Amino acid sequence: MPDAAQTNIPTDAPSDAQADAHLANLHKMSTTAGVTNVGYVAVNYTSIGAALLGLASALSFFGLLLLIVPVVGIVFAVVAIRQINDSSGTQTGKGLAYLGLALSLLLGGAAITRDVVTIVGARGEESRIADTLSKVGQYIHDGKYKEAYDLHDDGFQNHFTFAQFQTTWKSVQAPTSLGKVITMEWNGVPPVIEGSSGTQLAATKARVKFEKAQDERFDVILRKVGDRWLITRFPAFFTPPRPTAKKDVFNLDK
Predict the structure, then answer these.
(1) 3-state helix, strand, coil in the chain (%, to 5)
(2) Between 8 and 227, where is the model more confident?
(3) What is the rounded distance in angstroms from the CA atom of residue 75 to the CA atom of residue 97?
């Protein structure tokens, strides 16, 4: 007679070894089940902004106010690099951040250098203009009219002879007129410098102090000859020639 316990065991029941193997397979599946982003690293958005601002730094060549673009680009790049370093490998984008940093420094620096060179050059020209006016005033004060006349360009000298020049200034400095020229100086306002056909002209004002009058400011136009600025028009004292049909940006008779 068969044992009662044996009659309740299914004939197809798995062995203990098979059960263990099945459980092991289930455990392996559970460690990866549903995971689809293993190894994914996010791109840092600030680094993208840094790269875009680096490209936009080229705008700084169009005005001093636009230098804010590369400055902000540098800030974005530094912040992005710090965020990526602190992300424990969950963020990337250092290449974009460094690209933005390099472009911001390169383009912004180039724009600043250009502006500095322009400013320094302009101040150098202003210094030469001031020197010419000062010398003319001193020579006239000392009665050295020939030396003062030589500080006027060919265009001026072609229209006004030395005799006319000397007579005019002697008349102006007569005791019954304004008296001697005490000083003649540039008034300090940046001159308007224009260039055409290889010629540079500067429109500015001369501040002249006479012995018997208060400081007066007179329009004066100078032309660059070599490394010097020479007076080409002084309309308050020497009536300029009639302008040609071509538009004259420095016509003071309007």
Answers:
(1) 50, 15, 30
(2) 227
(3) 10
Considering the entire predicted model, what is its pTM? 0.57
Indicate the SS3 state at residue 39.
coil
Is residue 96 assigned to a domain? yes
Query: How far is Cα 193 from Cα 220, in angstroms, rounded to an integer?
Result: 12
Q: 87 with 111, same domain? A: yes
100 and 112 Cβ atoms separated by less than 8 Å:
no
For the chain, the residue count is 254
Number of C-beta neighbours around residue 209 at 10 A = 16
Q: Is the pLDDT of residue 240 over 60?
A: yes
Total domains present in the chain: 2
Contact 81, 94 (CB under 8 A): yes
- Candidates 32, 47, 33; CA nearest to 80 is 47
Residue 192, φ and ψ in degrees, nearest 5:
-90, 115
Let me know whether 153 and 91 are in one domain: no
Structure tokens, 150: 């030589």
Domain that holds residue 162: 128-233
